[in-house]
Amino acid sequence: MLKIENLHVAVGDKPILKGLSLDVPAGEVHAVMGPNGAGKSTLGYALSGRPGYEATEGAVAWRGEDLLALEPAERAAKGVFLSFQYPLEIPGVPAMTFVRTALNAQRRARGEDEVSAPDFLKRVREAAKALRMDFDMLKRPLNVGFSGGEKKRMEILQMALLEPSLLILDETDSGLDIDALRIVADGVNALRSPERAMLVITHYQRLLDYIKPDRVHVLAAGRIVASGGPELALELEAEGYDKFLPAAA
Ligand code: ADP
Ligand code: MG
Ligand code: MG
């Protein structure tokens, strides 16, 4: 479903990803783990099409289509969703308005009608309830003054409403206490489906106790240097990333 081959990404003139290859079949959840600064967020940005993180070499196929040839909005319309490590704060734009705008942009790009106000309200209420979010919070400016956990729930709420087919979660566990982690993981697990692929980017193994990956990959020095089953995450937790670094250099 997702096929990344020999991906190279430079930020400015600094090479960050240097020949990364990775396949995620439909219905599977793959974890990408790696030390700080390894390029995990860069991978998420490159897949979502963030300006400044363009590929200089390599190919990414998504459902057989050349993902790298698409504009960020076209990728979103095709169901690519990146949940940010550091969610954006937007003063002046109520969270609910932001989500509705994103949903309608996706629909327009797909040639669909915009969502009606009552329908949107119903869906956003249901999603907020499932994530145990206070509905009034959604009337506040997006993420402004939200706690780390509230911002992450906000990301998952957007994700639930946009129903993406390729989910990329970047350090969704950072800033979450155990209760919030469970709720967020439940939200993500509810989106597991044979039609979807998920990439869970994380520095720590903890999140993977709640979101069980089919495969675990180690990203170091800009490439995938090891892949294995869920036991690889436990091994990394116990032994650290050091043993993968010389092999990568
Ligand atoms: P990770 O998410 O694995 O911690 P990142 O993808 O955030 O790693 O960063 C990888 C490397 O790229 C780091 O050395 C980081 O400093 C650098 N980098 C990322 N974004 C930028 C940027 N906008 N400007 C300069 N350097 C960047
Ligand atoms: Mg980091
Ligand atoms: Mg990161």
TrEMBL record:
Keyword Nucleotide-binding set for record: yes
Top-level taxon of the source organism: Bacteria
Record bears the keyword ATP-binding: yes
PANTHER family xrefs: ABC TRANSPORTER I FAMILY MEMBER 6, CHLOROPLASTIC
Protein's organism: Brevundimonas balnearis
Domain ABC transporter residues, every copy: 2-246
Name of the protein in its database record: Fe-S cluster assembly ATPase SufC
Gene name in the database record: sufC
PROSITE patterns listed in its UniProt record: ABC_TRANSPORTER_1, ABC_TRANSPORTER_2
Keywords: ATP-binding, Nucleotide-binding
UniProt cross-references to SMART domains, sorted A to Z: AAA (SM00382)
Stated family: Belongs to the ABC transporter superfamily. Ycf16 family.
CDD domains: ABC_FeS_Assembly
InterPro entries given in the database record: AAA+_ATPase, ABC_transporter-like_ATP-bd, ABC_transporter-like_CS, FeS-cluster_ATPase_SufC, P-loop_NTPase
